Amino acid sequence: MPTLDLDTDIDAVAGRLADSQTLLVACLCAEWCGTCREYRVMFDRLADAHPEACFVWIDIETHAELVDEYDVENFPTILIEDGSATRFFGTVLPQPRIVERMIEEFATPAASPGTLKLRRALASA
Length: 125
What we know:
Elements: E1 4-5, H1 6-17, E2 24-29, H2 34-49, E3 54-59, H3 64-67, E4 77-81, E5 86-91, H4 96-106, H5 117-124
Helix pairs in contact: 1-5
């Protein structure tokens, strides 16, 4: 499944996240960032390779109301949430195998519930 973009695919994102078993993999970037634009190609490939997950591209300036509290300092920043917890939040170099390993590891939901701020915000946007 392709990467979803909040600018054009908000309904599709909400629909995918209605299933609490769907892993959310969000890339928090900025349109002006050259590294982010290069990273998008890798992120799209990962999305195609993992159709069971919901991959979302979020421009932090366009969608500041959703992500301001995350205090993104470096790009690209990846946020991964399962149905019960945030599993990862941090900057990841454009090395697809790192993100792919996390996706494989996080395919099993976390044992304890956590805060799902971005997931809830996207589902209700």
